[in-house]
Amino acid sequence: MGSHQINQPTTIALILKYAKLWPMLLASLVLCLGLGFLFLQTQEPKYKITSTLLIQDDVKGDGLFRGTAFSDLNLFGTHKTVYDEMERIRSRDLIYSVLKQLNMQTNYAYEDLLRDRELYGTELPVVVQTVLLKPSAFKLRMSITPVDAKGFVLTEKAARTSYRYGQLIKRPEFSIIVRRGPANAVAGKPVLISFVDLYKRAQAYSTAGLVVMPVIKDANTVSLTLMDAIPERGVAFLNTLLSQYNSDNVNSKNRTAIQTINFINTKLKALSATLSGAERDIEDYKVKNRITELREDAQMNMQNSGLATQQWSTINMQLNLVNSLYGYLTTGKDKFELVPTTMGLKDPTLQSLTDKYNSLQIERQRLLRNNSAMNPLVLTLTEQLTMLRANMLENLKMVKKGLLLERANYSNQTSKSDNRLSSVPVMERGLLERSREQGVKTTQYQYLLQKKEETELSLSATIPSFEVVESPGYNPAPASPKVQLVYLLSLLTGLSLPVGIVFLKEITNSKVREAADAVYITNKGNILGELSHKGLREAIVVEKGKSTNISELFKYIRTNLQFMDVDKLNKVMLVTSTSKGEGKTFFSINLGITLSLIGKKVVVLEFDLRKPDLLRGMNITSSKGLSNYLSGEEIGLDELLVPAPSGENLYVIGCGTLPENPAELLSSERLGVLIEQLKAQFDYVIIDSSPVGHVADAFTLGRFVDVSIYLIRYNYTSKSDLSIFTEICESRRLRNPMIVFNDARKDNKNLYRYGRYAYN
Questions:
Q1: Res 369 pLDDT > 80
Q2: Which residue has the higher pLDDT, 259 or 634?
Q3: Of the residues 70, 431, 688, 697, which has the maximum number of CB atoms within 10 A of its CB?
C-alpha cells in the first residue's frame, strides 16, 4: 500500500512560511524605522567627556604633608588611598562648589519642534545673574526675548514685561539681573529660562552623573567620565572640578601648616621661659660654687695644688738656708770669715749685704797681711763688718718671717685646692643635672625653630596632589543615544514584530492550522489528501463536466486510493472524524461522486444514526433507511437504495427513522449481511459514520471496512484531539487509517502538498 508520511518542517519550509508575511514585514520595517527616526529627533544627544588622573597612593601620609613639620615623626600619617581620593572627587560638597562657580543654576534653551536645544557659553544671547532664588523658583518657566541692544521682554506665563539690561528684577520667588550675552542676540527670538536646584544637581552628579573609577584594579590611575548634552560645558565642569579639588588639597595642607606654626609658636614661647629659668639656675650654681667650666677648674686646681706644694717645698728649703745662715752668723767662732752665699735666697737686700760683707772681709784680710789689728783702717773695717753682721742678722729675721708667711699661704692654697678637687664629683653631678635639663630644652627649642622654618617654607609650595595624565576632552560623536543601535533595534523590531505576532498567534492557537501541526502522528497514519476551502454552502462540489480546484483535489484523492488499492481490496471505506463539523459527510458525498465519474458503482451509507446530514446535503428524502433495516423490518435492499441525482452510478442509503438505541442496532447481525450484499453489488461502499470523539459507532463498524478515512479540518480540529487518532492507530481499532486535511485556505498551503507526497 502506498503511504504519504507527515515530515518535520525544514528550515526552507519555515523560511517560505514566513516569507508569505513580506507585506506585513515591509510595513513593520517602515513603521519601526520611522519611529526610531522620530525617537532620535526627540532625544537630546549627549557626549562623553573624560579625563585621567594619576593620584599618589599615600599610605604614610607624607604625600600631603611632605616637607611640613613633624613629617619625620609620622605624626600626620593618614591612610590616604586612591579610593579615598575618588570619594573626595565625587563628593557632593565639591561638586556643589563647582556648579556654583560655573553659574549652572540657570538653564538656557531655544525652543525647537521636537525638543528644546540647550545653550551654553558663547551661544548665550543673554546671561542671567541670580541674586536670590527660593525653592518655588525652580518650578517656574520663563522666556527672555531680546528687543535691541538695550532691552528685552521677560515673559512669565501670560505676562510680558519690558526691562533694560542690568536692571534688578524682583519677584517673590527670585531676584535676578539680566545682562547681554557673548552671542549676538536675534531680536524677537525667545530664550527659554529655567532655574535649577544646585543641591539636587550636585546630588545627581555625585551619585550617577560623574563616574570616577580606577583604570585598572589596584592602580593609581583614575578616570573621570561625564555625560553632557553640551560638551564644552562638560569640559569646563571637569576642569573646574580638578582645579577646585587641587585648591582644596592645598588649602587643607596650608591650614595644617598654619595650625602647626601656631602650635610651634606656643611651644616656643613656653620653652623660652623654661629655658631661661634653666640657664639662670646654671648661672646661679656656677656663681655660688665659683666655677666656670668644671673640668678646666678641676685641672687648674690640680695645677695650683701642685704649684703650691712645690712652692711650699722651695720655701721650706729657703727657710732651712736662712736658719743655717743665721746660725752661721751667730754661732760662728771666727767672726771675720767669709759668709756663704745666699744659696737660692732671692732677697736682694740680703744678697747685697752678703756681697758687701764678704768684700769687706776680703779687704780686711788683705790689710792684716801688712798691718796689725789695731790699724785704724783695720779697725774701721772691723766696725763696718760688725754693723753689716747685725744688719744681715736683722735681714735674715725679716726674710725668715716673710718665708714663714709665704709658706703658710701656699699651705692654705694647697688645702683649698685639695678641698675643691674632692668636691668636684658633687658639683659635676649638680651641674650635669642642670645642664641636662638645659640641653633638653635647648634641643627642643632648636628643633621647633627648624620645623617652624620648614613649615613656613611649605606654605609657599602649591604642588598638586595629583597629575593630569589626560586633560578633559570629549568625543565629537554623541555617546547617547546610539544612532546605529537605535536603527538596529528598529530594524530587528520591524522584522521580529510580525513574525512574533504570527508565532504567538500560532502557539496560542489550539486548532490545527497545517499538516505540520500533526507531526507527532508520523508513522501512525497515511495522508490521503488535502481539500481546499470551498467558499460555498453547497455540500456537492464535484460535478460532471466542471473543473474546480476542490474537484481536482477530490480527483487527486481518488487517484491516491487507486494507487494504494493495487489488489482491489479497498471496497469498503469508513469516513469519520474526531467531532461533528469536520466535513466527513461532505467528504463522503463528494468522494462518492468522484468515484462514480469514472464508471464505478458507489453507494454511500448514512451511518450517523444520531445526527444524520447526508441525505439533506444531497437534497434527497427517504422514509426508510438503515435503522429500519437493522431493527428487523422486512425491507429489501432495493427499497433502501436511493439513486443520487448528481451521479449515474451513485446510490445512497439514508439513516431512516432516528433510533433510540443506535449502539444496539449496530450490533445487529443484519449489518454484516448488508455489507456483504453491498460489496457484491457495488465497487465502493462509503460509510459516513459518527465522530469517534463522542461515540463508539465507528469502532463497531470498523470490523467491516477495508480503509478508514479520518477527517482533520484546519482551524477547527483541536490539536489535543489528534491524540485520539494516535491512540486509534496504536491500538489498531480502525483498519488502514488515512488522513484527509479539510478546509485548507490560502495561508494553510505548505510543503506537504502534492509535490511532497511520497509513494511506495
A1: no
A2: 634
A3: 688
* Alpha-carbon distances of 124 from 106, 368, 377, rounded to whole Å: 12, 148, 146
- Rounded to the nearest angstrom, the gap between the alpha carbon of residue 199 and the centroid of all alpha carbons in its chain is 23
Angle between helices 483-508 and 22-42 (to 10 degrees): 140
CA angle 326, 328, 329 (to 5 degrees): 65
| C-alpha span between 78 and 65 (Å, rounded) | 10
CA pair distance 169, 132, nearest whole angstrom: 10
Residue 6 pLDDT more than 50?
no
The alpha carbon of 520 is separated from its chain's Cα centroid by a whole number of angstroms, namely 52
CB 576 within 8 A of CB 689: yes
Residues 586, 531 contacting (CB under 8 angstroms) = no
Within 10 angstroms of residue 692's Cβ, the number of other Cβ atoms is 25
* Structure-model confidence comparison of residues 19 and 557, the more confident one: 557
Q: Are 328 and 357 in contact (CB under 8 A)?
A: no
* Cα separations in angstroms, 688 against 297, 573, 613, 725: 151, 9, 10, 17
In 3D, which of 329, 383, 377, 385 has the Cα closest to residue 360? 385
At 758, is the pLDDT very low, low, confident or very high (cuts 50, 70, 90)? Answer: very low
Please indicate, yes or no, whether the overall pTM of this predicted structure exceeds 0.90: no
Cell readout for 741 is 486535511
Residue 75 in this model has a pLDDT that exceeds 50:
no
Q: With contact defined as beta carbons under 8 Å apart, do 55 and 218 qualify? A: no
Among 243, 242, 246, 225, which Cα is nearest to 473's?
A: 225
Average pLDDT, the chain: 79
The one-character DSSP state at 516 is G
Q: Which of 544, 454, 46 is CA-nearest to residue 264?
A: 454
DSSP 70-95: TGGGTTT---B-HHHHHHHHT-HHHH
Contact predicate 178/165, CB 8 Å: yes
CA–CA gap between residue 83 and residue 703 (Å, rounded): 88
Tell me the domains of the chain and their CATH numbers: 11-43+483-508 (no CATH), 47-254 (no CATH), 515-756 (3.40.50.300)
Cell numbers 459527510 correspond to what residue? 585
* Cell numbers found for residue 740: 484527509
- Tell me the C-alpha distance between 225 and 46, whole Å: 12
Residue 122 CA to residue 232 CA, distance in Å, equals 10
| Alpha carbons within 13 A on the beta-carbon side of 427 | 21
Residue 135 CA, chain-centre distance (Å), reads 33
